[in-house]
Every structure is written in structure tokens, then in C-alpha cells.
Predict the 3D structure of the following.
Amino acid sequence: MRGAVSAAAEIDGFGTDVDPTLAWCVAVGEWAPPVGEGRTTELWELLASTAAVDVAAARILEPHLDALTILAQAERSELRSPHDTWGVFAAESPDHRLRAEQSRTGWRLRGTKPWCSLASHLSRALVTATLDDGRRRLFAVDLRADGVRPHAGPWAARGLAQVVSAPVDFDDAPGEPVGEAGWYLERPGFAWGGMSVAACWWGAATRIAQRLLAPAQSANADQLSLVHLGKVDTALWSARAVLAEAADLVDDGRSRRVGERAVSERLRAVVADAATLTLAEAAAALGPGPLTRDEQFARNSADLHLYLQQHHGLRDVARIGREAARQGAAW
């Protein structure tokens, strides 16, 4: 694993040039361990280590590996081809609706799917669509097939600028069912993907936190530089402990007894808070210099800031509180 991440750092345009980064992701997908089969810690270390090199690269890698895990869970790995690049498009929007209908020639998708990251670069995707009865079902789709049209935008993001997340239009496009209706949301491990994203957040935050070491180690270090580093160190240490425990819970099956969604949302809240604090403390400690003169630091900071928007803040925390109240808490 360390060799693969070290080699990635030598790839010209790693994280910024999408196609060579995707080629690396395909190679990693051949050996990366899946979540929930005894090696979850190794997978999350891989994702965190990738994010510590380049946040966007981890953002590209995580959904590819997630799709491979989903296909294996559904026992549909035969849908994989050696050079395929995968995404998972499961976001919903009141402004866009994707419907699936069965015809004599198979399933057909019609409508628009929002927030489809890298659709113009990927070859395949797992896409959720709504059936006539209102249930959602997962389909494997060839993104280069007739009837599939990725939008180029709108995408004005400064963070993750190369990871364009825009709508895709489906006009009578063929889709191959993966699992039964409702399976994608109800399957054991639905929450695992969200925890893998949190591992990326944590790895990205550790890279930013590295910049706090030099001021604190300086012979002229003042108390404030030590406070900034101490706050970040405590937060990241705590988040790492939560990631380690969650990986054990997932691998030995205890997460199902605790409630996988509860485990995932607690984990994501802890890591998101730690990463947000890291960004804030780095800005306070270092000032505008690195954000204006260090291209890699500025890009990683902007990338992480946008990536963290996948956590829904107080809405997610409210769900944690609701579940804690229902269970009488489980501390």
C-alpha cells in the first residue's frame, strides 16, 4: 500500500490531471481490500494516505472502490472489466428525477441525475433510479452509451475544481439492475461508504496539520503556536481513535448490532469536526501566506473545505441526537 501511494506522488499531475489519476485508481482497485471483510483498517489507511498526498486524488479513488465493493456485495462482479473506471451516482434532487422502466429489451433509464462526479471521464457508474412504485433501484450504466449525456456544468468550484459534479441526462439509456428494488439503501454496509469518505477527510487534515509543526518547533515558538498545534493534535488523535474502533466494529459485525447508520454518522461528525478545526487553526496560525504562495497547500485546503460539504452539519448531528434519545444513549 505504501509503495502504491509513494508511486502515486511521482505521477505527473496526480490529483490534478483526472485521466492518469483514474488509471492509478484502476490499478489500485485490483488489490485494494473491500470494507467489512477483515481489512477495513487497511482500506481506510489507503484512502487517508492518498488524501494526505492529494485530496482530489482520494476524492476520485473512493467512489471507484465503493462501486467495486457494491458489485461484490451484489454478486455482480462479472459486470467489471479490467480497465473500467467507476462512479456511484445516488444523489437525489427535487429539481431532477431519473426513472427506470422495464421494456421488452430490458431496463431503460429516462430523466436527469444530479451531482454525477466525473461523469464525462468515467466509463461506468452505479446509478439509483426511481421505479413506477416509487422505490429506488440500483443500475449499472455504460456512461459512453447512446442516450447518456453528461453536462459540463454548472461547476464554479474553487476546491476540487477538476472533479466536476454536474447532472447527467439519460434518454432511453440501457441499465443493468444491481440488486433488487430497495437493496442499495437497505443492504448491510450502506453506511460504509460514508465512513470511507471520512477516512479521506482525516488524511487530508493530517497533511494540512503538518504545516503547524515548524512554527511550534521553532526556538522562538510562542504559546499561541503551541496552542494551535495542541488543539489540532488532540482533535486528529481523537478522530483516528474513532476510525480505528469503527473499522473493528465493521469487520467483526458489531456495527450491525450498534446500528451501522449510527456508527457512520457519529464517526463522520467526529472526523468532520476535527478536519474543520484543523482548517481553522491552520488559517489562524499561519495567516494568508501559505494560502496565497503555496499552491499545494492552498489547493488541499480548498479541496478539503468543499469535500467536507458532504457532511450535512447540524442536520446530521440532529439525527445522532434523535437516535441517542431513542436508545437512551449508548455511551
